[in-house]
Amino acid sequence: MNTVGFPMSDKENEKRRALLPEHASLIKHPEALLFERGYGEVLGIGDDEFVSAGARVGSKEEALAQDIICDPKVGDAGYLPQLEKGKTVFGWVHATENRDITNTLIDRGMTAYAWENMYDGERHVFWRNNELAGEAAIMHAFLCYGSMPYETKVAVIGRGNAARGAIKILNMLGAKVYQYSRKAEKRLRSEIGNYGIVVNCVLWDVSRKDHIVSREDLSKMKKGAMIIDVSCDRGGGIETSVPTTIEHPTYVVDGIVHYAVDHTPALFYRTFSKSNSKLIYPYVDQLVEGEIGSVLLNAKVMEHGRIIDRRISEVQGR
Known about the structure:
Blueprint: E1 4-6, H1 21-24, E2 33-36, H2 47-52, E3 56-58, H3 60-64, E4 68-70, E5 88-91, H4 99-107, E6 111-114, E7 119-120, E8 123-124, H5 127-145, E9 153-157, H6 161-172, E10 176-180, H7 185-191, E11 197-200, E12 226-229, E13 250-253, E14 256-259, H8 269-289, H9 294-299, E15 300-303, E16 306-307, H10 310-316
Parallel strand pairs: 1-2, 1-4, 2-3, 4-5, 5-6, 9-10, 9-11, 11-12, 12-14
Antiparallel strand pairs: 6-15, 7-8, 13-14, 15-16
Helix pairs in contact: 5-6
């Protein structure tokens, strides 16, 4: 049996929680779970509720000493390089896009199950989080922009879950929405001057060397227009995109406002935590019992410091 630690994320303004007491109690061996003291405070949940569910509560150091570390933003965790060698991590890893994370996982001989690679059939397990990312980005970006979407012409790039969430909020707030698929990138570039807002929701192929919107394309946009990069891949679909924070969400390039917060669902941490906990507890149970199903097996990107996901090797030339 494996133990699982649940530390509080050290990423700025990250209040999402992976597992709640009501679902921790459904684990076959809840005593294998250790939550950092104060884990549920932001949600109004006391440590005693985790204890009543059969779990343990301790310090951050104790949480990080468990066999498996579960943290939604584990790939961004400042503690990652300090973890004891041989640990397993479970959360959004994003090693494909980040060589530093890959190096850390290799150097520390870690095993990693990446949430971004978890699919049940053809559907992403965390599809609701991706939809929430689109919803939250629109709400926050327009607030930062100081404008309501009424009558604004908006181009949304992509047809996935994030795009669906973005379009839902834009429609509710009265925007005029025009959607472009991946195959319509060329048409978007020729029509980009028609829009006050451009929203990028494309899951970027990190092996590509070009961009959907290049810096040169910014000159074609309306004065003071805004790009909302929900995908927020550094220099990816949007060449001038640099991931930002909730505290400092926007910047300006060539007169165009850029919004590229890389964890927008954290803005609605209560909504995320409630839905995520119900979703994730069966997989936590598998990790505790050591009985790994196909969804987790296919999401394993690293095993004892050895790269499993060939996309990491292809993109990083390993």
